[in-house]
Amino acid sequence: MYLLLIIVAFFLLIIGASGIRIVRPYERGLIERLGKFRREVKAGIHFIIPFFDRMLKVDLREHVIDVPPQEVITKDNVIVTVDAVIYYEITDAYRSAYNVSNFEFATVKLAQTNLRNVIGELELDQTLTSRERINAKLRTVLDEATDKWGIRITRVEIKKIDPPKDIMEAMSKQMKAERTKRAAILEAEGVRQSEILKAEGQKQAAILKAEGEAEAIKRVAEANKYKLITEAQGQGEAITLVFKAIHEGQPTNDLLAVRYLEALKDIANGKATKIFLPVELSGILGSVGAIAELFKKEAGGESKQ
């Protein structure tokens, strides 16, 4: 009897435990009773009636779906292979559970269809250089289409876009030629810049040299000018002093005649062929003549003696 009670209590405990449900913080619980939706519960511990109630848990965390590679024709009739990944999160647990049977499969098919539409509007070059544009447009289209399923598409990323092998070889050759061309242009530009800089340097050097020579000539001329002015001032002062000394000494005509002769010696300096004398010198030269006569008389007297 006791054993039967223990067995019954054990089964009751198992049945009671089966009615306890724990919902995690990132989940939502959908409780159905006899196949009919009753309520949605959030994170925490909940109790349901065993055998009558059923809880369906929905994960609200962000998930990623891998879209398999597929061949897509571009606007200029080039077949490319494209694959992508889709990031999504469930915003409405009820609609994600009851409005679509397999939303991941449905989202993948929806992405493949819209990927063909988006890339079909672009040429190959645009397709290869417009990944962000393709991602944004595909995300918008998918987000609008999956809104009724309670799903929000957070991000779409194109993993790769592979053109046909012959197109890739042609692109590789074009890229190589473009890089060779760019390298040649850069080299030519470098030579041009080098020659310009060299010419600029030579120009600057010539200008600096000319400025230096001009400055040197200017300084030499200023030095000569200063020398001449100083000498002239010295000579002027000397003449003034001599003139003053002569007047103070009250010289006779004979003395002036002797000084003129000494001056003529310096003026001629043994090199001049012509000497211009002032008019007033004629009177003085008379004294010179008198002196000459005096010397002659003295010489005659000595000879007679």
Features:
305 residues, alpha+beta, 3-stranded antiparallel sheet, 8 helices, 61% helix, 21% strand
Strand order of the largest sheet: 3-2-5
Oligomer: single chain
Number of helices: 8
**Helical residue percent band:** 55-70%
What gap, in angstroms, lies between the N and C termini?
A: 202 Å
Rg measurement, Å: 61 Å
Approximate strand percentage: 15-25%
State the shape.
Answer: elongated
Q: Please, what is the average pLDDT?
A: 84
**Count of individual beta strands:** 8
Class based on secondary structure composition and strand pairing: alpha+beta
- Point out poorly predicted stretches: none
Question: Could you please describe the fold and organization of this structure?
Answer:
The protein is of the alpha+beta class and 305 residues long. Helix content is 61%, strand content 21%. It has eight helices and eight strands; from the N terminus they run H-E-E-E-E-E-E-E-H-H-H-H-E-H-H-H. It has helices spanning 2-18, 93-98, 103-120, 124-129, 131-146, 165-248, 253-268, 281-304, and strands spanning 20-23, 27-33, 36-41, 44-47, 53-59, 63-73, 79-90, 151-162. The strands form three sheets. A three-stranded antiparallel β-sheet has the order 3-2-5. A three-stranded antiparallel β-sheet has the order 6-7-8. Helix 3 crosses helix 5 (131-146) and helix 7 (253-268) packs across helix 8. The longest helix is centred in the last third of the chain and has 84 residues, at 165-248. It is elongated and about 190 Å long. The mean pLDDT is 84.
